[in-house]
Design brief:
It is built from six helices and seven strands. It has helices at residues 2-28, 38-41, 53-71, 75-90, 114-119, 150-159; strands at 103-106, 123-131, 137-142, 162-164, 166-168, 171-173, 175-183.
Length: 186
Amino acid sequence: MWSLFRIHAIAFFLLIVSVSNVLITAQTEPLRLPQRSSETRRQIPEASIPCTSDEATWWNDLRAAGEAVRVNGGSKERKQFLELLQEGQKKAYQPPVPDRAAVVLRMSEPKYTDEARHEKINGVVPLQVEFLSDGTVGKVVLLGGLGFGLDQAAMDAARQTTFLPAIKDRKFVRDSRQMKMSFYIY
């Protein structure tokens, strides 16, 4: 009788220990979401919410223009993209995708100043950048600087960012995020 009780007690103890290990593991391991590549993060998503045929055509044209900006990045591509954004706002089209943050399609490289190059200044300039609902950059706030003209160069480059505005409740909205402009001499 005593040995049967010991066997049951040991089995119960092992069960408790194994369940505890599973619970501890489940609580300590972070949730792993699928990683999106930087290429995917910089692309305008396909329509995933029902919309009118005019909205679908506009959205597909906007996606194609956004891809041209992302790949080529010329002023012609940027102008076409911004014109499509404005057309959508004039016609009150609604983006056929769920809520999301602004999608940066292209960032301009900041220009290294002669003074900074002479002084061999390296580092990062952090900025707070406001992305407006019309596809233009609003306020750019310097959060830290390097001097030697690099702070202004970083702010000027941030103002040239091309992006799809943030979306909330199927409307383009203002968004703000931190960006970093890097300056390194190799």
